Amino acid sequence: MRRRELILLLGNAAVTWPQVIRAQSERTRRIGILSTLGADDPEGQARIAAFLRELQRLGWSEGRNVRVEYRWGTGDADRIRRDAAELVAFEPDVILAAGGQVMLPLREVTRTVPIVFTQTPDPVGAGFVESLARPGSNTTGFTNFDYGASGKWLEVLKQIAPGLTRVGVLRDAAVPAGTGQWGAISAVAPALGVDLSPIDVRDAREIERAVSEFAHGPDRGLIVTTAGLAIRHRDLIIALARQHRLPTVYPFRLYAIGGGLISYGPDSIDPHRRAAGYVDRILKGEKPADLPVQAPTKYELVINVKTAKALGITVPPALLARADEVIE
Hints:
- The protein has about 325 residues and is an alpha/beta fold.
- It contains 13 helices and 12 strands.
- The protein has 2 domains: about 10-145 and about 270-290, Rossmann fold (3-Layer(aba) Sandwich); about 145-265 and about 300-325, 3-Layer(aba) Sandwich (Rossmann fold).
- β9, α10 (about 255) and β10 (about 260-265) form a beta-alpha-beta unit.
- α5 crosses α6 and α7 packs parallel to α9 (about 235-245).
């Protein structure tokens, strides 16, 4: 073999062998996804799609170097518990907990599998992490609401419907956010001249009954909190608010897009995109205990002018000017 041919052969080998070694050492990683929403829910699909797109951008492709196992809880507590146990038995390298409702069932079945959560209020108070800066456990992720910001719902509602004197707060009292957000709203109610009525609900039938009963009276409005139950039954809630002509403020843009009057809250899709970054870092060796819990970076105000007109409400120009999005 000529000297030049030998040099070329060795050069090619130097390029090829590291690639072969990496391919041999790269194993398929496992990711479990447990969503509080159903597989047929457009919001649930949008959240997971954002997560998967970012994961792929970071180099993780399903079928090549990662396998993803999905579970859709559809808001059913018993089903979520079964799904959590099944996902842990799948022996994933990391689990995406898409929604605060799935966190407690997951924590009941594992304290070792890394978990990245989204849409989870007050993870410290719930005992999921030791602190936001240093989670100190197998879980970390992204909160969806600072309780203190919940009082803004009532302020916005009074701006768009100044004559309101009684406001119902639709919440799930069985979860910490139900009581935490109620407390924040209650703190600002006296200064705004509003009496509050908690509307504690557990299923669609109870939502319809409770909202219809509350609506019997003048100068009434409604606040919908971040309860997963409300998201799953959002079409029903929006329809009830329209039927009973209740000015209503909602926590996420998806309500206003669906016909709700006004929403104020963080982007519900972006945390799932950002969660892919944490999953990537965990798959590369970092520990959830060392990854700080992150809060929303922006709150958006969305006003549905079409719904306002249907309710006979004139939106103040100052409020329109502040809106991030106006739906005509």
